[in-house]
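the two lines:
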Amino acid sequence: MKASLATSAALHALVLTWALVSLGSPESFDVADVEALPVDIVSIEELTQIQQGDKQAPVKDKAAPVPTAKETPVENAENVGDSDVDLKNLPMPEERPRDIETAAAPEKAEKVVQTPDPKPVEDVKQEEPPSEPSTEVAALPEARQDVAPDPKPDAAPAEEAPPEEAEAEALPDKVPVPAMRPKVEQAQAQTAKTPERKKEEKKKQEKASSLNESDFNADEIAALLNKEKASGGGAKRSRDEAALGGKKTTGGSKLTMSEMDALRGQIQNNWSIIPGLADAAEVRIKVTMQLDQNGDIIGEPSVVATGGTESARRALAGGAKRAIMKSRPFRGLPPEKYDAWREVVVNFDPSDMM
Amino acid sequence: MEQVGLEAVGSVTLWGLFMQAGFVVKLVMLGLIAASIWTWAIVVDKSLSYGKARRQLDSFEQVFWSGQSLEELYRTLSDRQTSGMSAIFVAAMREWKKSFERGARAPIGLQMRIDRAMDVTLARESELLEARLGSLATIGSSAPFIGLFGTVVGIMTSFQAIAGSKQTSLAVVAPGIAEALLATAIGLLAAIPAVIAYNKFSADAGKLTARMEGFADEFSAILSRQIDEKLQPRAAAQ
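prediction for all of em together
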């Protein structure tokens, strides 16, 4: 037993020495000085309630896009830009005009005469002020650049017409409907041509005419595709200083507290609360009503009273309904936020009104 | 200030952990290391002695069943120090001799005495085999608890120290806990081999004892036949 005890002790001494030597301090974790991760809490409202503005601009109370140079408003424009026609794509500078063969110009000018209506899509592609609207004169900008000898006598006077005037007249006529293009007649397509595209356009016109005349030709699909570079930009004007916002407004804005309070005030003014009604302080009233754009109520407002006694609830709910009917139509609701107050919920605490 | 505090925490090597442990924890660790040493001493001792016992049983069985005369075998073995089966054999033969030298008459009484002598020797032998297995079992079952006790005490003291230092950074908390956990680690280190060894050795001891019992029964049968053969003629003569 002594021998084995000695053996065991020696064994332990060995193992312990080995452990002390080789199982030294474990390597300490290499903890780099990591900055705390910045976490933004994004509420769904930031997606559903985006207001049109500029993505790089600082935050302000009211979102607004970068101010535009032109001030003349375009009706129903949604995208901000200096363009005359409202387009979704970003404005792109057009390439410099290249040398152009002039031979084709005279023919076009002749055709132009018959078509007073300019083709909108092509107008937009040009950075130059559009000169087409003055019906016959459409070909003139080209003529100025390259086609010095314009064979047409009628066109000559129109050439001198200042582009600005033409533009002013032109604006209302233009409608951004790209889908129309295939149907456009040859002559229309030619009117607004920039010089560099003449050749292309000629081919297209020929193809378009063949379409009109005969049938759809599958082999020529490629030729029908629009190979022109997009250049556009919206037509909505902005005058405010740029402030943070999205590309476009995605959802109805919410009524501000003051707007909400104004609405509540209109109802309260017409609300005659019976003083001394027992338990009135414990009643809460929730009014849900649908409003039309004039602030008038559509249908019946729903009045729900909770808390308090049965009699107090009935009395206050009736009073609320009468007050609402009396105070319509509601004034001072911002019409551009109609989405927000189309259906509006107003909460009343009668104890505040006594 | 904080830098100083962190350095004061000390090293986290095994030796450093042991040295900075409190008195109770140190005691527990030393006790557990002693238990581990004892466990392995028993393991070494038992594996040697069991191997020896097994070899002795094998050689004795070979000699016993070789057809050698029992008287001769007894004569050679009675002088030596015997263990295992040979001890049982010697005890039985001694009882047989004594009875015959005094001229025993009753065959049943003789048989009972021989059986009793063999039983006593068997019990002594198996007790020898199982000696110290009990301490293995004790270490195996109690060492984890002792280690746990050391850990609990260590963590208690280190939490008291943290409460005193009024800092809760992990660098302050960790060494105390690591030091305390060392006690449990040593406890497990002692307990696991002890449990394994206990199970193995008690099974081995059971097997050896069963072999000896089998031999004792067989030998008892042989002697009983001898008694009948030797006493029958005398009874018939009378």
